[in-house]
Amino acid sequence: MNKIFNYVTDNIDLLIRRKLSSKKTDLYYIVENTNWSIAEDGKNIVGNVKNIIGEVTSSAKYISNDSYIHYGSFNVFMAAPARYKKRKGNKIIVTCFHIVDGDPRASMIASVDKYVGKWHTSCNITKNKLISYGVNSDKICVIPLGIDTNIYFPAISLEEREKQRSKIGIKKGQIVIGSFQKDGNGWDEGLEPKLIKGPDIFCDAVEMLSHEHDIFVLLSGPARGYVKKRLEQAQIPYKHIYMENAGDIAKLYRMIDIYIVASREEGGPKAILESMASGVPVISTKVGQAVDMMTNGENGFIVDIEDVSAITDAFNKIINDLVLREKIIKNGLSTAKNYELKKIAERYENELYVKD
């Protein structure tokens, strides 16, 4: 994790750019020490903007004047000391991926809005929620999450995929469902489910599908204890491989047949674009970025939140209709190209990191 948080000091090219730059424009992307996903977001943005010299850090203590301070989440922003939010000459940007209904921190949005130059979110659902909490729409910028197609791409061949699957105990003919997220509370075993991520819905759907199909579940991400326990109770074979590196997670996508997002609340999730870019059909509930980028039956299936039957119906359509499956894969790959990381970073630079 230190490699992520000290990204600038480990990146020789970036240091050269800083040294040679005649026009110094600083960006500090503030992240949590424990949130691997947000840290990855910051690294991707800082590493792909063209005209801004920046760094990813977990502290705003040593930030210079006349800089962009981009808080990678609302939680990070709220945890920062008040003096960091009031610095003159610095432009504060706050990313808010999603707002959970009933979260007491949501009521604080209006009171801290005066410190924020721009609010950033990845989807229109969250934009509308920010507006409902008192943020002027002119201050909100919707820029979706991006995808690095140099890392996420389809399996080279069916033969290679079968070879990799067999190495981790997947039998020939099994339908492999992927789920690569953190969906347990805390950072330990994760036996208590984080319900906004829908692990209960995911398990209900998988259990129903296991009555008709030979299912294997491939898991990644921390705190998956609840899901693992449910799968064991239902006697559904699975493998949990915890990988933090994006390149390693990408290898897991190339082993699966379908990815299921069963969340109740999301800003992304990243898994949608990661699946599409990997040539994997995705089924998602109507959350976050899924609503903005998915067309039902065209580049995936999008279903109502908590609708287990709709998830299983979509699964059966994909498995039983080869023509439909190939169409979804083709359209998904095309969709992913529109969200290339370099294109998204350019939007950050043009829409967020600009002088008034």
Number of strands: 12
> Briefly, what CATH class of the largest domain?
Alpha Beta
How many independent structural domains? 2
Could you tell me the CATH topology label of the largest domain. Rossmann fold
Architecture per CATH nomenclature, i.e. the level-2 architecture of the largest domain: 3-Layer(aba) Sandwich
Biggest sheet descriptor: 6 strands, parallel
Q: What percent of residues adopt helix (DSSP H or I)?
A: 25-40%
What is the assigned CATH homologous superfamily of the largest domain?
A: Glycogen Phosphorylase B
Main sheet strand line-up: 2-1-3-4-5-6
Low-confidence stretches: 1-23
Q: On the 0-100 scale, what is the average pLDDT?
A: 89
Task: Explain this structure.
The protein is α/β, with parallel strands linked by helices. It has two domains: 156 residues, Glycogen Phosphorylase B (Rossmann fold, 3-Layer(aba) Sandwich); 180 residues, 3-Layer(aba) Sandwich (Rossmann fold). 40% of the residues lie in helices and 15% in strands. The protein is built from 16 helices and twelve strands. It has a six-stranded parallel beta sheet with strand order 2-1-3-4-5-6, with helices on both faces. The two termini are 35 Å apart. The relative contact order is 0.12.
